[in-house]
Amino acid sequence: MNSVELFAGCGGLALGLHRGGFSHVAVIDWDEHACGTLARNKAERRAGVDQWTVIRADVRQFDFHTIAPRIDLVAGGVPCQPFSIGGKHRGYDDDRNLFPEMLRGVRELQPKAVLIENVRGLKRPAFLQYFSYLELALAYPELRPREGENWADHRARLERYHTRGKPDGLHYQVVHAVLNAADYGVPQKRERVFIVAIRSDLGAEFAFPPVTHSEQGLLWSQYATQEYWERHAIAVRRRPTPSAAVRSKVDQIGQDLRRCLQPWQTVRDQLCDLPPPARLRSEMEPGLTHFLVPGARSYAGHTGSKWDEPAKTLKAGDHGVPGGENMLADDCGVRYFTIRESARLQTFPDEYVFPGSWTESMRQIGNAVPVLLAEMIGTKLHTTLRGHPGDK
Length: 392
What we know:
Layout: E1 2-6, H1 12-19, E2 23-29, H2 32-43, E3 54-56, E4 73-77, H3 99-109, E5 113-119, H4 128-139, H5 151-164, E6 172-180, E7 191-199, E8 213-214, H6 215-223, H7 227-231, H8 244-254, E9 262-263, H9 267-271, E10 305-306, E11 327-330, E12 333-336, H10 339-345, H11 358-367, H12 371-385
Parallel strand pairs: 1-2, 1-4, 2-3, 4-5, 8-9, 10-11
Antiparallel strand pairs: 5-7, 6-7, 11-12
Helix pairs in contact: 1-12, 4-5, 6-8
């Protein structure tokens, strides 16, 4: 199935969707460094990436009519800074709000399905009305804003059209969910909003994939069966003593093991087979981008991720790398994650390279969609769309 990706960044969502069964006819981003990462992996013939048409372009000037017809999926992680909890909170008034361009792409390409990813902050009370507007605008992309019409007035017109119950032309059935990547086997607590729209004429039914992993499963493997510590060869004297709250949770789990899913994946699970980081980039193993960067320090609210839990949400930050979310805490204090460690926490394969500086690579990785989560959603979308010709 053919797909187009907007705001592709370094390719996490695109790579996962490729693994889920989609073939990208265009992968579009404006950022020079992100496009450099995509081009480098394409040149090195990484699986899937070698077939992509990578286009560096400002989506606001991009002509979607240049793309081949019959697109099955339009996907993209619309820039999240306007809605991020860590940003300036300007929302729909931010010049970086590119949701209108995503809607234009849907209107002009008329895909079978749409997949949009964004930060959980998009569903904060301050933006809830705008979020409901986005869902309506996505449901009826041909009912575009009039000249000089603001989003609130456009939303009112969309509401009247929606409640009429007799849509004409192109329209979509829209659902959304806030998903925690850790619940799908990603070794990172990362909550993001995903919006899926299915073209109404298809008659297809979509539901987000069910969760597969849980904190309860991790606690059970650590403090009931001890399997977690034994698998990692952690001596009994080095295993942490569970708190009263943790013991209570484990007791509750034991009362109904049928509800116990697979364990959350931890930082240790994902990084344990990596060699120690090189002290200098010039000394690291070729291609691994696994070297130390000095300067990490701990203070209140800035304490790093723990070895035996999923990592904190990796972030890109407004000005370089925020320390607390991109640090690892161990017996020796804290240090920054290396590029390769961060890429693993976002479930990129080790052969996927990030040729830029540490700060630039970490920015790209922090902005990415975890590959594994994108693959699971993509697989479910591919299964949903299979058998629907979509030529009405």
